[in-house]
Request: fold
Amino acid sequence: MNLITEIMPSLINGLQTTLGLFFIIVVVTIPLGFLVACVRVYAPRWITWIIQVYIYVMRGTPLLLQLMVVFFGLPLVGITFDRFAAAVFTFIINYTAYYAEIFRGGILSVPNGQFEAIKVLGIGRVRGFIKIIIPQVMRVVLPSVGNEVISLVKDTSLIYILGLGELLRAGQIAANTYASLVPYAAVGIIYLIITGLVTLALNAIEKKSNY
Amino acid sequence: MGLKATNITKQFNGIDVIKNFDFTIDAGEIVTLVGRSGTGKTTLMRLLNQLEKADNGTIVIDDTFLCKESTEGKADYVSKKEQKTYGNQIGMVFQDYQLFPNLTVIENCLEAPLAQKLMTKEEAVQKAESLLQQMGILDKRDVYPGTLSGGQQQRAAIARAMMLNPKILCFDEPTSALDRDTANGIGKMIQEIASDGTGILIVTHDIDFAEQYGTRSVSSDLFIA
Reply:
């Protein structure tokens, strides 16, 4: 028990970095992913090709590698990030790609007749999209979005590669210092608590978007 | 008075689906459009409802044009704003209704007039309630379409289309998913709407239904004369 109280401050320190990254990425990438999906579905062919290549690269290479390229590789061409900014940037471009594909599936799942009904009734494309199409898309994509959000909680641990002290790294240091597995167990429990809270939040949102 | 379409031509991939076809729907008549699958019945209805563009021809409801035949033998469409005016003169009930599943029945009805700012909210609610009453589904005003039966969805879709007071109302295969009794209910409903002076167009495979409720029948065999 003593050990736990002793390691807690450093774990909480790591947790702050983890949660900070998590919230920034969730708030930025979900709307951004939706935007990219809309462009992918509605833009001219050549733009969709560019987006396809972007998505292919983001999904086709490990996030860990992307982190290294951004932080260690981009300075070679004169683009320098500090550690946390590099992490934020990489997670944004990576997660946006996944969300874009999820939202694209959601948009395509809405029957064409819905768009035609909007047109025939003279509702207007923008209003129709916001009031009628988006709610239907949300309902379809929520389970997949939830999966990604939970993945994100755990993926944040990858930023140790940039020397950032996130939760798992804090646990690892504590485990080495005290030659004990208890810090790992504590870290595991903290992750479970976070994903548990995220799951509850997602369930509440899903319930609300039901019709 | 009513809808007049003259010299309508529509090709898909260079093949004529409709060629130099003349067609009218007068106020208060129920025109049924019958014929084999793939002969362009639904295409004609979609042309009238702006879901496809005619290659040639003139389409007008009373004095409101959608397109005019030009001297080069092309359909010249009027401006977007005028197209919208035309669009409100004609309504359509889709084969699978296409009610908005995330809106309640009454919200489905309110959406178009409110989006187009044609009525105040109070006026729209009043009109929607009286239409739902006429359709016999006023008790369903606050439920989502997913909980309705096929016949009830059909009625909700009719009410939604009637909100804009169209002079012409089109039905794409209105009875295809309904049992005979429910279909007869819809047929009587359509007759009632026509008796108030609305011109009706029904695309259907259901010859019995067409004979029983139509006042005039047009065969899609005439599309390519």
